[in-house]
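This is your field. Have a critical look at the following sequence-structure pair:

***
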Amino acid sequence: MNHNIAIDGPAGAGKSTIAKRIAEKLGYIYVDTGAMYRALGLHLLRSGIAADDTEAIIRASEDADITLSFEKGEQIVLLNGENVNGLIRTEEVGNMASACSVHAKVREKMVRRQQEMARTRDVVMDGRDICSVVLPDASVKVFLTASVAVRAKRRFDELTAKGIACDLSEIEADIRERDHRDMTREVTPLKQAPDATLVDSSDMAIDEVVDAIIGLR
């Protein structure tokens, strides 16, 4: 029987960082579902498709070949065969990913791919609806969050460390807007699953969060 850990939560809560650490400690495969939506967001931007053009987004999602591979323990996100790991972490791509993820047909396609991975491997998977939709039978289910201010500061520090000029207040506004969009979307809105454990990482170090989640097994 495969063992799966599902981690939900809002943008900037540290889901990817925590999920990667847990996977490394347990020897599981890390699946960053958000990266799949970001790859689609990049595809839409490259195609010149507007965030409010529903029909074009759905058509493009059918055309985009988005897959994950693993090399030396690192997840590689492939968009039409191209490694796009270094291209999908911008605010512009993140906002487009959030906009396209509201569409049911887009999510259905992504969910099928994610579930196929979980059926064949022990995985740690993070995203916005992993506990409730993608892996409802996961052995560990967590809703990881942090305050908007903390999440914005983490993102600011991350971008600044990479030499990317940014504005803290703009990042905070983007996070608030994305939270609202994710929580109020018609299809699988962001929310804590009834059987998921709430973990607020606002005042916790990374290792503390990792140990707390592993301790839930």
